[in-house]
Amino acid sequence: MSSLATQPVVAVLGPTNTGKTHLAIERMCGHSSGMIGFPLRLLAREVYDRVVAIKGKERVALITGEEKLLPPHAQYYLTTAESMPLDRDFAFVALDEAQLATDPERGHVFTDRLLRARGREETMLLGSEALRPMVRALVPRAEIIGRPRFSTLTYAGATKLSRLPPRSVIVAFSAEEVYAVAEMLRRLRGGAAVVMGALSPRTRNAQVAMFQAGEVDYLVATDAIGMGLNMDVNHVAFASLRKFDGRRSRRLTISEMAQIAGRAGRHQRDGTFGTLALEGGSGARFEDEEVDAIEAHVFPSIDHLYWREGQPSLVSLDALIGDLERRPDRQVLRAAPQAIDLAVLKRLAEEDWVRDRAKGIPMIARLWAACGLPDFRKTGPEPHSRLVARVFRHLSEGEGHLPVSWFADELARLDSVQGDVETLADRIAGVRTWAYIAHRDGWLADAATWAERTRMLEEKLSDALHQRLTQRFVDRRTSVLMRDLGAKGGELALPVKVDDEGIVTVDGEPIGRLIGFRFKADHL
After folding, report:
1. DSSP labels, 336-381
2. What are phi and psi of 154, to 5 degrees?
3. Taking Cα atoms as reference points, which of 263, 275, 175, 274 lies closest to residue 225?
4. Distance CA 469, CA 340 (A)
5. What mean pLDDT do residues 239-255 have?
6. Which of 141, 188, 258, 315 has most Cβ atoms within 10 angstroms of its Cβ?
7. Which helix (H) or strand (E) segment is 318 a member of?
8. Lowest mean pLDDT among 35-44, 194-203, 228-237, 511-520
């Protein structure tokens, strides 16, 4: 990929709802070829579908860790930041949400792409206005374009769950919080759709489709909602203003608050944000200066980015580790905290058998690629390193392929749609591990077949998870009641019917039975 400093680099900076991603898609489609790197698989998939509608499926590729749609003559690539092929030549290259270079876990990937990913004719960096000083310091020739938000974002204070306006998103920061809020909404308002980063694109899209179609008026989500996923949202309510970032529990930064709150109101339609009012007044509270900053879209400037060597030496195991632990030589860059791939590499480097096999550039490259296997199930460095060790053992012996029997057995173990929401979500995380493996070049003898099998299994589990989420968090009877009340200004002029057996229905949904003059509601 071209890295000539003479080629134009444009940084398009501004808050949410400024059309940055839309602009990048337009610019890319105007070139003969192009690539955009995204922070989320979900977002890459969403934009892939948009570009396919413009250019046709045979000209567009989707590359993420667990998914690869790569037509022979693809010219336009939509990828996750980690999966951007920097060895290919594109006329246009863009990096979305570039301010994620401040993230302790993944920031070094975004910093590397900001520094190295270049289009032959045009490069575009998309991100927050707070990134401006970093662009000035690291890409001094870049043209910086500020974009204003299309609509107004206004603070609406604290609101009880029972009084949330329709078309609201409630943001929580753990699966437990998401499920608890969704359950309360089921009882009070008929239910909610659920969106979390751990959901597959298929499940997420099915849940969002319910919300978009008006089947439910509420959506409960983790902060994955903040990364450019576009929905018809009027109000964003924070169930909490604290999150666990992988190392500690901390309060959200103002920029993070704004990124999430900015999902409310799209294009020319204004939006509001606030918090959930809980019993006893123990709910989250915005500080006055936070509200002022979010409404005015004015945030503290970023003063550093995380960095790790993006092209480490593969001459020896020690040289690889040394490069990955090397400190940056620019003042605005900080050494990234040790990520799980490096932690696993250092653990395996202590094993004699690993050092015996990891000799020569090709085999060291294989070991480092194996360490890059994400810990989708969040098991931690020790258990995850055991899985990586087994993968590398197979990759470094015989023909260098993983045994088909092992791969097949692991998929078969996950091939069940029985169980609750948590069980199915855990199985999908397991399938993502094997999908990632199936999409690595040369790891399986018949990779295409196994990639297709993992895709089919993920879709099967995703459909089951969508069904289970809907069963658990959507009470269609209450939803019909609330929708009809809203449509009639709160009057009780509902289409209520009582059949010969005393079964009471509202708009076709059974809600209970009349026994004499006594009404007995069905159990929810």
Report:
1. PPPPHHHHHHHHHHTSHHHHHH--SHHHHHHHHHHHTS--TT---H
2. -125, 140
3. 263
4. 31
5. 88
6. 258
7. helix 317-325
8. 511-520
